[in-house]
Amino acid sequence: MLVALLLWSSLHIANSDATALPTDEHGDYNGSDLIEWINSHPEGYVHPSLRIGRRIPGDSSSIIGTFVSSAPGAKPIEKDEVIATIPWDRMIGPGDEYSPTTFGSCQAIRNLASELKLGDNSQYAPYVRYLLTQSIEAMPGEWSKAGQMFLRQITADGELPPLDADWFEAAEYKNVWLNACRGSDDSIERLAYYLTSNRDEDTLMIPIYDMMNHSNDPDKLNTLSYKPNKVGDSFVFKASRRINPSEEIFNCYNRCHACSTHFREECETYSFRGTPDIFAHYGFVEEIPHYWWFDRNEGHQVTEIEFCLEKIAATGELSVSWINSTPGDHDKAFFVKHLERLKQIESNKEGLEGQLVQPDNENATSQEKMSRLEWEACWKYHNALITAIDAAIVSLNRIRRGNATAKLIVHDEYDIGDEL
Ligand SMILES: *[C@@H]1O[C@H](CO)[C@@H](O)[C@H](O)[C@H]1NC(C)=O
Ligand SMILES: *[C@@H]1O[C@H](CO)[C@@H](O)[C@H](O)[C@H]1NC(C)=O
Ligand SMILES: *[C@@H]1O[C@H](CO)[C@@H](O)[C@H](O)[C@H]1NC(C)=O
Ligand SMILES: *[C@@H]1O[C@H](CO)[C@@H](O)[C@H](O)[C@H]1NC(C)=O
């Protein structure tokens, strides 16, 4: 919380000096400065039908993202049309160190931190001003102590994913930024780290593109992106199907994971994250289809269990496809144990709420209570675990009874590379 407060106050100062962001008639950011800044570059282009704002303008509970405008006369964005071309010098990245096959870069985070510190004096000022308004408090690594301890209770101290090293006590921030990159622990550098962790495309921070929300639902996903092949090239994203007025424009943050239909084709990005990793890095549970992985630790031996969870459109039933091998009896016992444990936690939900959640009418005073946002995120993840584990057990039971054959996906080693 201390960090969050420090960050908040420093952003406050940065903002009061800075030019105000353009807003729609309801006071929500509309991105017109960014669009103008991209279009003012000879190679830059933003489709005239693109709208930045809330899903329902004026409704502060609806999410902020990118949409096709429904203003009178606005046209759909047709399949294969370019949604935006972002020139090289409108992106913040590792500079001359850029390579399309490098998936993480300390230099990129350092460059972003320098630009954020320059604020209005940055050559990327329209983008920097927007980035400075972003908050990191929804990221599990930045949650209150109470929120983090409760998520650890749900994951049985790391027996269930996500890995502690990806989030617990800001472990990844410390490992990557403070240790590997030798960064400093100040609020702007911390923001720069999390912004790259959340929003970059491999090593590039790309204005407008980074405002698209995530969907891995093949019926919703409607874009494809093309990274620069070399230093100096532009970044392009296109419509993968016709996108009608008022529809949301989505990106997929894990297009290339093991359950994706894009696997290997169209997979030029470092986006292999599974459902638990998406939760650890963004604080939300993605929609089904899911990719789940579990490491069952038995003494010094670790068994990897992986599966895809899909919904059968016709029946709404969940379907499990096992990756590489079908689990055995010990794996099933592991699932049964955790399912019971998770249900046990849920049976005391009300008691836990009183004990752990910051009352709405009280200001945050200690790390011993968590925000409502953290509480709700924990339960969404808890429910996702129950749904996935339950479906896994049902699938294994059917296979054991001989009433189903295992649906098995066999992948060769998929090397996710080294992030740094
Ligand atoms: C966005 O905000 C600016 C500044 O408030 C305003 O001039 C412009 O008309 C707005 N554009 C849209 C599409 O709402
Ligand atoms: C959608 O994207 C906006 C802009 O990047 C972000 O503020 C918001 O948290 C995202 N929502 C979800 C559900 O990911
Ligand atoms: C909470 O903080 C605000 C702003 O600092 C203050 O005005 C308000 O009185 C505080 N409320 C309580 C219940 O402490
Ligand atoms: C076997 O599977 C079929 C099709 O899903 C189902 O109709 C049937 O009831 C199942 N039988 C048993 C014994 O579970």
Automatic annotation (TrEMBL):
Domain SET: 48-254
Keywords: Signal
CDD domains found in the cross-reference section: SET_LSMT
Top-level taxon of origin: Eukaryota
Database matches in Gene3D superfamilies: set domain protein methyltransferase, domain 1
Signal in keyword set: yes
Signal peptide: 1-18
InterPro entries: SET_dom, SET_dom_sf, SETD3_SETD6_MTase
Protein name (record): SET domain-containing protein
Species of origin: Cyclotella cryptica
Taxonomic lineage of the native organism: Eukaryota, Sar, Stramenopiles, Ochrophyta, Bacillariophyta
